[in-house]
Design brief:
The chain is of the alpha+beta class. The protein has a single domain, classed as VC0802-like, CATH 3.30.2130. It is 32% helix and 16% strand. A four-stranded antiparallel beta sheet has the order 2-3-1-4, covered by helices on one side. A four-stranded mixed beta sheet has the order 5-8-7-6, with helices on one face. The chain is globular and about 60 Å long. The C terminus is likely disordered. Keywords: RNA-binding. GO terms for molecular function: RNA binding. Pfam families: THUMP. InterPro entries: THUMP_dom (IPR004114), THUMPD1-like (IPR040183).
Length: 307
């Protein structure tokens, strides 16, 4: 007598619970990609809680797309105010046609590490302006909460591979428009000593044609994840040397903040405005839901001011 066949032996085995998730429990989603970050990429590092990487990227894609395409739609509506009816109908019909040649302006990339994702942007999009606008809007209207999974957003003007990067040259490239070419913000006037003393904080404006002094206070904020080649001290020293001695360091009252993000084998850099700390270091979760400690401090400050 042969062995009994086990019931259901011809049926396919069920998938394990949690199948389809990545190494860190990511819900990969239909938008995310495992493509590698490449040298020269422009984008935003977006952080989240462990296991929420896929949801974070989907949320970032939605928020970024709405921020960019919403503005463009408003501009198009303004441009069509003077068009005749036929022209407007033609534009609408063209917009309904699928455009296979249209470039992807956003590409969500999952990284092989927890809590960190990357949104690659089309080079026509300024990541610094985009992140600053989103955080400023959230700070001005925290009641209109638009995100649940996103934590911090760090813009990246450009990416390099850590194994081949010339950090000094890379820093000079990113910093030049802001510190060495009269880039935005163009000038910041320092408070001089009384003119009657014949002394000025840095030189005499008469020596430079009465132009405002262009010395900018700055700070450097490096973040290193999963990389042993580059460390904080090395980054700070190299970037400070690239800025030069003519610009003072001020960790609390800076005009510009230099962000340096190292994640595994890539390094990204950008220069942001002086309200970086005011905007909770671009942490959307903190902007929408500030910690109780910060709320208590803010209340105490308000009370002291009224007193």
């Amino acid at each position: 007598m042969g062995k009994r066949t086990m019931p259901g032996s011809n049926q396919p085995s069920k998938k394990r619970k949690g199948g389809g998730k990545g190494k860190y429990g990511n819900h990969t989603g239909k938008h995310s990609s495992r493509a590698a970050i490449e040298s020269g990429d422009v984008g935003v590092f977006v952080t989240c809680d462990m296991g929420k990487e896929g949801k974070c990227l989907s949320e970032a894609l939605d928020i970024f797309s709405h921020a960019i395409e919403g503005n463009e739609n408003q501009e198009e509506e303004h441009d069509t105010d003077d068009e005749d009816i036929e022209a407007q109908i033609r534009r609408e019909l063209e917009g309904l046609q699928p455009n296979k040649d249209k470039k992807r302006r956003f590409q969500p990339l999952q990284m092989d590490m927890p809590c960190v994702t990357f949104m690659r942007l089309d080079p026509s999009i300024d990541p610094v302006e985009l992140v600053h606008r989103l955080c400023s809007e959230a700070h001005a209207h925290p009641e209109t909460k638009k995100s649940r999974w996103i934590k911090r957003m760090h813009p990246v003007t450009s990416i390099r591979k850590t194994l081949s990067v010339d950090l000094a040259a890379f820093a000079k490239e990113i910093l030049k428009p802001h510190f060495h070419s009269g880039g935005p913000p163009k000038t910041v006037s320092l408070n001089p000593l009384p003119r009657s003393l014949g002394l000025w904080a840095v030189g005499d404006p008469a020596d430079i044609g009465n132009d405002p002094i262009t010395h900018l206070a700055y700070a450097i904020r490096p973040t290193v994840r999963g990389n042993s080649k580059l460390n904080r001290d090395m980054i700070i020293k190299t970037v400070a040397d690239a800025v030069g001695p003519e610009h003072p360091v001020n960790l609390t009252n800076y005009d510009l903040m230099i962000l340096v993000d190292v994640a595994q084998n890539v390094i990204g850099m950008s220069v942001v405005q002086g309200d970086y700390d005011k905007l909770k270091r671009f942490n959307l979760a903190e902007i929408y839901d500030p910690s109780p400690k910060e709320e208590t401090a803010a209340t105490a400050t308000t009370t002291d001011t009224k007193a």
